[in-house]
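Example (one chain per record):
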Amino acid sequence: LQGKMNMNSQRYHPVSAAIHWLMFLLIATALAAIEVRGNLPKTDTLRDTLKNLHMLAGQLVLLFLLFRLAARLAFAAPRELPGARWQIAIAHAVHAILYLMMLALPLSGIVLYQSGGKDVSFFGILLPHIVATDKSLHGNVHEVHEFLGNAIYFVVGLHILAAVWHHFIKRDATVLRMLPWKK
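Predicted structure:
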């Protein structure tokens, strides 16, 4: 999605930048909650709280993905900084993968829970079932959800490494363009 073109803009719109950082916090919260939960004894009552936090953060990622896409349509992305074609292609690919993961992880989480015969609620509102209870589907979706959950560490890591490289090695404005405030 390119949004409205604005060739004068060197920065992302503050709304786009704020949603970017909010989604980073939500993804980090979902991952941290499930990692901590996995290290607790099965008898610890905090496990349920962490599972609920993981699920809520994931659902919020899905919701804010819609806002992020709307912001991308409403506010132009700044023009690309000069760079090698292969670097720009990799950056676009990583961004596309991140967007797909921000969609696939929450949706697969909902399908995982519902195919296991459980209801999913969002701030107390019961979500409609998109799948019936199905043990086979549950097992397959569990594998997909877990794979994507592990893969997102790698993809976000690539994204962060690229930002660090741009900021400290290349010394261009890539990172500064995504800050929601002016420097």
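Caption: The radius of gyration is 19 Å.
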